[in-house]
Amino acid sequence: MKTKEGSGQNGRNTHTPNILLPNDHLERVPAWGGASSSISHVYRPTTVEQLHNLLQLAQQSGRTIGLRGGGNSYGDAAMNSENILIDLRRMNRILDWNPDTGIITVEPGVTISRLWQYVLEDGWWPPVVTGTSATTIGGCAGMNVHGKNAYQKGPIGDHILQFDFMLASGEIITCSREENSDIFHAAIGGFGMLGIFTSITLKMTRVYSGLLDVYTEARPNLAAM
Ligand SMILES: Cc1cc2nc3c(=O)[nH]c(=O)nc-3n(C[C@H](O)[C@H](O)[C@H](O)COP(=O)(O)OP(=O)(O)OC[C@H]3O[C@@H](n4cnc5c(N)ncnc54)[C@H](O)[C@@H]3O)c2cc1C
Q: Domain range spanning residue 158?
């Protein structure tokens, strides 16, 4: 993600930097597989205001911004070598929960694990759960992840009702199927290239127990499922 001023084609903001970034945020960040890593200026904001300040820091220092949730992407999607990497895991508050409707609003750093543990108490479950539950809701929305029930429930984007989205300019807009719908559909599965999810509202699925009855049934092909 390049901040608005001086956006360039070469992966860096092109205007002359006003400041140098301090070295104390430099970290080696591994890709999930552990086979590769890169060094970035890593920041871990806890508030929208801090996030906004980081966009300004990127402009002033001529650096690009990469976003990182749980860092579970197999490749380098959650890395940003020699530039700013914003780790969103500390923005992890549950902002609103309605146990009657199953509609929840969370900050992007809430993990699937935390989400299911939170809503199960009231008889709900996330509609889409990835193979690891260390993923964050922001990262899941960024990749529009699927669960093993994708053939029935679709990807997670189908269950997102609304989100607040910080653009590269720092402006926050609300997106839904009715409001800013083009950005709503582009940002879900947008690989964190268009802006930052700062809060996400999803609809949970009703369950009556956390226990599962598991049975195996073989089908010859997809059409027979
Ligand atoms: C063991 C394992 C099992 C998996 N199982 C599945 C599976 O069943 N189904 C499936 O679909 N995937 C699966 N994955 C892949 C994983 O679910 C996705 O890569 C998911 O996006 C990772 O979420 P994360 O929070 O770790 O995001 P990250 O890997 O940190 O980031 C993913 C993307 O989202 C962007 N992003 C992160 N936060 C934000 C934000 N707040 N705003 C905007 N963009 C943001 C990042 O820039 C990046 O492009 C699995 C991965 C592992 C390691």
A: 94-206
Tell me the β-bridge partners of 104.
Answer: 97, 202
Q: What is the dihedral of CA 182, 67, 151, 183, to 10 degrees?
A: 0
The CATH number given to whatever domain includes residue 67 is: 3.30.43.10
Domain count for the chain, please give it.
2
Largest alpha-carbon pair distance within the chain?
62
The pick from 55, 143, 202 for probing ligand 1's pocket by mutation, whose C-beta has the most ligand atoms within 8 angstroms, reads 143
What ipTM was estimated for this complex? 0.99
Residue 224: inside a domain: no
Q: Which CATH number does the domain housing residue 173 bear? A: 3.30.465.10
Ligand 1 pocket, 72 CB below 6 A? yes
The sign of the dihedral angle between the CA atoms of 198, 78, 73, 28 is negative
Q: What is the mean pLDDT of the chain?
A: 93
> Per-residue confidence at 17, pLDDT binned at 50, 70, 90?
confident
pLDDT digits (tens, 9 = 90+) for 47-92: 999 999 999 999 999 999 999 999 999 989 999 999 999 999 999 9
- 109 CB near ligand 1 (under 6 Å): no
Residue 103 lies in a domain: yes
